[in-house]
Amino acid sequence: MNDQDCLARRFDDHRSHLRSVAYRMLGSMSEADDAVQETWLRLSRADTREVENLRAWLTTVVGRVCLNMLRSRRSKREDSLDVLLPEPVVSSEGDGDPEHEAVLADSVGLALLVVLDTLTPAERLAFVLHDMFGVPFGEIAPIVGRSPAAARQLASRARRRVRSEAPVADGDLRGQRAVIDAFVKASREGDFDALLAVLDPDVVVRADRGAVAPGTPRTVRGARAVAEVAVSFSRLAPSARRALVNGAAGLVVVTQERPFAVIGFTITNGRIVEIDILADPARLGRIDLTVLDD
């Protein structure tokens, strides 16, 4: 085995970790894979003979790559009025599959990813690397071009926003599924009162361009307004298939044997507080839905 093969094997030992970091930074598994590949290219060209902790070195490199990608994305984003929905990780509800468990390990709640996307790139990096992966501020500082104290402040601002805006979801998967099943049943039957019973009064629905007609608001707030939208969902309810969306109970709508939408739910205290609908065909095409194949 030559030196390059040995380096590739060492890199593969950390690939899952790097993918997890990149997904939390970018909110897109396809972009996360691109960032990991770029990290490998940088490693293959670097002189690492004096690197004592390869995992830490790779973490900072993938952080730099993601930071550049976030800054580029921010400069290109044309529509600043709506949140860019993250691309979810979709998996089946089956238990005991090691690959399934690996997918769940890479996932993080959609509600948190939406809040992370409102942060500046530097705030997001400082929060993700420090709060989620324990990277010291002394190592974060040179990535963002700040002092360690300034990097700490970046993470602190991000932490305050996350705590104030990201709802804490119920952890009971069976309870989540019961709420969503009730939501689908009420939508299918047009039962307005039953819908109100499972919706939090301040529930919010976010949808991308593929899910709504041109000129239609992509964010809807309040139980009554969301219930009215849900009634219109009745024609699609029979096409909804159970799935795990970022580790939580969710739905994938399939029409004419093609994925039409991925719907993620955030449920708190037994009620739906957030619904995220991704139906952009281009972005759906980047999500691995083969795990749902029979």
Mind explaining what this structure looks like?
With 294 residues, this protein is α+β, with helices and mostly antiparallel strands. It folds into 2 domains: 3-87 and 112-165, Up-down Bundle (Butyryl-CoA Dehydrogenase, subunit A, domain 3); 173-292, Nuclear Transport Factor 2, Chain: A (Roll). Helices cover 53% and strands 16% of the residues. It has 12 helices and 7 strands. It has a 7-stranded mixed beta sheet with strand order 1-4-5-6-7-2-3. Helix 1 packs across helix 3 (54-76), helix 6 packs antiparallel against helix 7 and helix 9 runs antiparallel to helix 10 (192-198). The longest helix is centred in the first third of the chain and has 24 residues, at 3-26. The radius of gyration is 20 Å and the shape is globular. It starts with a helix and ends in a 10-residue tail after the last helix.
Summarize the structure.
This protein has 294 residues and is an alpha+beta fold. The protein has helices at residues 3-26, 29-45, 54-76, 98-106, 110-116, 121-132, 137-144, 148-165, 173-189, 192-198, 223-232, 281-284; strands spanning 90-91, 199-207, 219-221, 240-245, 248-255, 258-268, 271-278.
Weakly predicted, low-confidence segments: 78-82
CATH architecture of the largest domain: Up-down Bundle
Order of helices and strands: HHHEHHHHHHHEEHEEEEH
Q: What is the mean predicted local confidence, pLDDT?
A: 88
Tell me the span between the first and last alpha carbons: 40 Å
Shape verdict: globular
The secondary structure category is: alpha+beta
Strand order of the largest sheet: 1-4-5-6-7-2-3
